[in-house]
Amino acid sequence: MREPEAEHRPVLDRREFVRLGAITTVGAAVVGSALIYDRLNPPANDVEGEASIRKLDGLSGIPSSESEDLLVRMQRELARAMAKPMEQRQWVMVIDTRKCVGCHACTIGCVAENKLPPGVVYRPVVTEEAGKFPNVQLRFTPRPCMQCDAPPCVPVCPVKATWKRKDGIVAIDYDKCIGCRYCLTACPYGARTSDFGEYYTAGVAEGVQRNDPDRPLDGARARYEELPNHEYHKKFSRAKHGSPMGNARKCHYCLHRLEEGMLPMCTTTCIGRATYFGDAADPDSLVSELIAKHRCQTLLPEKGTRPRVYYIL
Prior knowledge:
Layout: H1 14-40, H2 70-82, E1 91-96, H3 105-114, E2 125-132, E3 135-142, E4 162-164, E5 170-172, H4 182-186, E6 193-194, E7 248-249, H5 255-258, H6 265-269, E8 275-279, H7 286-293, E9 309-312
Parallel strand pairs: 1-9
Antiparallel strand pairs: 1-8, 2-3, 4-5, 6-7
């Protein structure tokens, strides 16, 4: 049997490559000009405004009967939960990994909300590459604190600075924490980090004009980095090397926001609507519906920690 002849492709020399690039550039300019002209001179029968927005099919996994924005629903359910005593509400988070686009908006929103310094991250997004070339895809897994029902970080603390609240949140008392980092070692998820007192702007602004009070001078810190944060509904200032410097730090579901009737920052900033938060003690809540409808999984169930963060795969 005669072997098929190998495909021969002409090799472009430098002159041909430059000519091809010029043709491509001119073609793109012509198309761009046509598009601009078309936008500036729309046909008379073009539909404008809200009528021009194409309606998309409902997202899988979300009840099709939803008549209100999911954030609005979760906000309403949050108000209902906060009206109950603490022991009657059980906070959980559901993350739909099918909808996470890896934008890291939740990570950045958390950093801004809690004024996190370098090296301290409450909600990293783990990126995993699956498949073999050319069939390769990326999977993204946000990983906040699991708020475990059997948290291994609690019993190892020698000063009882961390504990499990009645509403399910694992909290830290920065004023008690001695920075031994036993809890960091005990957490199988790596959800705890230590605040070593670093600043993003320290040492990067030499030569800044001295008449600009809002920018660091000769490597000093920017003023915004010394503003206090309000974690655990308290006021903590790092300006004089106070707490939480030297402490263990972790996600706490934005407890200070919950007590003001606001959802966690990661939930509100998720552009893919992949993060859901609510009261699992409420059978009518969105998180309860999602957990009941899907075969949700938790991370490292073999560790026996009983996490409160559920993943839809």
